[in-house]
Design goal:
DUF429 domain-containing protein; Nucleotidyltransferase, domain 5; DUF429; two-stranded antiparallel ribbon; five-stranded mixed sheet; alpha/beta
Length: about 250
């Protein structure tokens, strides 16, 4: 087995859970995604909890993968954001001078999203909050086509669904913005049952990442390993492609 990594966005950049061919595991935070890629061997498989591939227009529910995944997640389906067109994601790049400017930028980006969707749909505040990371990843995938076969999009709750025998997790990770201990314990136990060392999934996350960021990275690490073995399933199957030839799919 080659090196594999699961990656999630975090306050300090990107948190990665990495397993090497000798089964050693490690976690680290990287300031940018390109540095993370270059830290790993050139054949490493990387699954990331961030949209990859942006369409010119969107339909009901987002790009295409999102509604396909949501139908399996029950009460966890709200964790799958609807991602708009590339024009909307790149419409407002900042920097923003204060929250008033940030909200104004959100309104302008939402206007672009409505113009490039049918039926017209704006952008949630939560989705707008990750646009800078989507743009970072988008630029890398456009500039380095060699990465497209081994850097794949996943989603933690979809990963947990797959690992849990295609059953959505019964408890949320957070309640009213705060970590929900029973939900975290449920996920840690599942990750351990699926082959990650219990001590690893229970360790403190690296500085700059939260506990839920780290567990999400662990979940998509297992998807990266499934992909490396040829076992992962994409939504849709086969993946779509955007105007740059970048695959659009959520892998589980």
């Amino acid at each position: 087995m080659r090196s594999c990594a699961g990656v999630d966005g975090c306050k300090a950049g990107w948190v990665a859970a990495i397993r090497r061919p000798d089964s050693t595991v490690e976690a680290a935070v990287f300031g940018d995604f390109a540095t993370l890629v270059d830290f790993l061997p050139p054949d490493a498989t990387i699954a990331v909890d961030m949209p990859i591939g942006l369409p010119e227009t969107t339909g009901k529910g987002g790009r295409g993968p999102e509604p396909l995944v949501r139908r399996h997640l029950g009460q966890r389906q709200s964790s799958v954001f609807s991602i708009p067109s590339r024009a909307a994601v790149h419409a407002e790049t900042g920097p923003f001078d204060g929250m008033e400017a940030w909200y104004a930028a959100h309104r302008r980006a939402s206007a672009v999203a409505r113009e490039t969707s049918d039926p017209p749909r704006g952008i949630s505040i939560q989705a707008f909050g990750i646009f800078s990371k989507i743009r970072e990843l988008d630029g890398l995938m456009i500039g380095r086509p060699d990465l497209r076969a081994r850097v794949i999009e996943s989603h933690p709750e979809a990963a947990f669904w797959r690992l849990n025998g295609e059953q959505a997790m019964s408890r949320p990770k957070k309640v009213k913005g705060r970590v929900n201990a029973p939900g975290m314990a449920e996920r840690k136990a599942l990750l351990a049952r699926c082959g990650l060392p219990e001590a690893f999934v229970s360790t403190q996350p690296p500085r700059g990442a939260t506990e839920d960021d780290f567990l999400d990275a662990c979940a998509v690490l297992l998807v990266a390993e499934r992909h490396a073995r040829g076992e992962a399933v994409s939504f849709p199957d086969p993946p779509l492609e955007d105007a740059h030839g970048i695959p659009i799919a959520i892998w589980t």
